[in-house]
Specification:
homodimer, alpha/beta, Rossmann fold, 6-stranded mixed sheet, 4-stranded parallel sheet, 47% helix, globular
Chain lengths: 311, 311
């Protein structure tokens, strides 16, 4: 892996993604005494950064592999991303989804002609079901976060952000499966001048925080967080990158996530999903640490059921 | 009034407003078989286009007038706009608001240091209270929609839109007090090559529709519309402009407004208020008429109580 690889990845996926806008809010900057820029992946195709990794993963497959299709398991956004990227590349997509996934995310998969296969809402059930489909159909398994091509694709959000704002002191991202923060850490490493990367994680699913302390991949016993995109744990492909390049992880409570989400809705007039509010909640919780800094926040996605909001 | 006047107005208010982005959505374009561009005044300072007219109105006052302050009555957004513009120009603002105005709009006025004076929720009560304050304090009365300086200020949203998209066939705006559509009609007249202007209006407050038929300013007996910014009628300054330059007004039902609002939230991931969804609802209702056209829609504002949504 080097800088050239990421540049190639970025060029390869460009026809399949939006270059999303970078927004800021005077009111929020005043509130926190920092200069914050938000990379709006909630405006990305299908509504989340996941489109970047999914597009790159499918583009990495051989013609023969593409003919047999792709399969993934996902809490939602990666499902839509694979469906849409596969549709655009004329590839069949099998999507294993937990039965309690938000209806808005199931609808997204249907819109993009992915074939949904439901399973129980545990990491184990997801993986077993996806493996079964891969075997039966000969489909290539795409992991939502723990696959190099996905991580490299994800890095392109931060690459674009750093192109526009080269003087960032720090970039904050949410931490779920680790694919976004690992990609962001690679981008900061190769494309910035010492920009740090910090993760925000729900206290209720703080596996990554504990993993960085113990030095091995920890899991969660429960997932009682509103941040439905972060109900998962790190993997062996992204954890080494995170260990090496991520400064630290800040944990936040559920009410802090909801308040941060509401603040962005009300002040910036943009729709973000709960997972997406986690790094901003981490900043609000640690205002002193970020005072007078140039901060980038990756707003990871905007797929939320507007009829079922947490506030 | 001529083109030069509007150019001067635009230059004068530029330091006090955002040049808001123009967004589009592939999914929405496919859905309606037209090329739609949305001028996002929901991202304007204080969250609505009203900042443009308010800034221009205060900038038009003499030093002496500014010292005595300004007063207005408003269903909400103009209140915030006058408060913020006055704060920036170090002018005292008295704001007459209906007692049932959304709390989010009252909070906005407080944030910008406007002094709220509550009254009953009728046009008559608003006007009487504002006149009283004007007399007692010597404050200059600013009308939310029926004042030349406000109309000219409002025109700058469409001027910017036409600069970016000079080939628009039609621009759609909501119709409430008439200040936005009149300003937009002037902009289209002076800055476009035959671009039409069409209004969207709730069936439940269709005074402007009836006014264009009868040729005189009609009022509403009731205001049972979710579009809280449109619960008002035209005035003697904007009606002549509307009569001369507006193509027509399309009326929409309440459920059509709410569906259009939800569609923009879900597809574009941006927050718009109900009034703001009315012209898009008009387009959805009349898809055939707009087929293959280049359509601009002024998204007028995004100030909505996110804890009290119509869907």
């Amino acid at each position: 892996m080097d800088k050239q690889t990421l540049i190639k990845v970025h060029n390869r996926i460009k026809p399949f993604i939006h270059r999303t806008p970078v927004l800021s809010s005077c009111l929020i900057n005043e509130m926190v005494s920092a200069d914050i820029v938000f990379k709006c992946e909630n405006f990305q195709k299908m509504g989340a950064f996941k489109m970047r990794g999914a597009a790159n993963a499918i583009l990495s497959l051989s013609e023969e592999e593409r003919e047999r299709g792709v399969v993934t398991h996902s809490s939602g956004n990666f499902a839509q991303a694979v469906s849409l990227a596969a549709q655009k590349l004329d590839v069949k997509a099998y999507i294993v989804m937990p039965e309690n996934a938000p209806q808005v995310k199931k609808n997204g998969v249907n819109t993009y002609e992915g074939e949904i296969i439901e399973c129980e809402s545990t990491p184990q059930a997801r993986e077993a079901t996806a493996n079964k489909v891969a075997k039966e159909k000969g489909a290539s398994f795409l992991h939502p976060s723990n696959q190099d091509e996905v991580i490299y694709g994800n890095s392109t959000a931060a690459i674009e952000l750093l192109e526009e704002c080269p003087n960032l002191d720090v970039i904050l991202t949410p931490v779920g499966g680790g694919g976004l923060i690992a990609g962001t850490a690679l981008a900061a490493h190769y494309f910035s001048n010492n920009c740090k990367v910090i993760g925000g994680e729900p206290m209720e699913a703080d596996d990554a925080y504990r993993s960085l302390i113990s030095g091995k991949i920890e899991t969660n016993d429960s997932f009682h967080t509103v941040a439905d995109g972060l109900r998962t744990h790190l993997g062996n492909r992204n954890f080494p990158i995170i260990k090496e390049h991520v400064e630290k992880i800040i944990r936040v409570e559920e009410d802090e996530i909801i308040n941060a989400m509401q603040l962005i809705w009300e002040r910036m007039k943009i729709i973000i999903e709960p997972s997406c509010a986690v790094p901003f909640a981490a900043l609000l919780k640690n205002k002193k640490e970020f005072k007078n800094k140039n901060v980038g926040i990756i707003l990871s996605g905007g797929n939320v059921d507007v009829k079922n909001l947490p506030f």
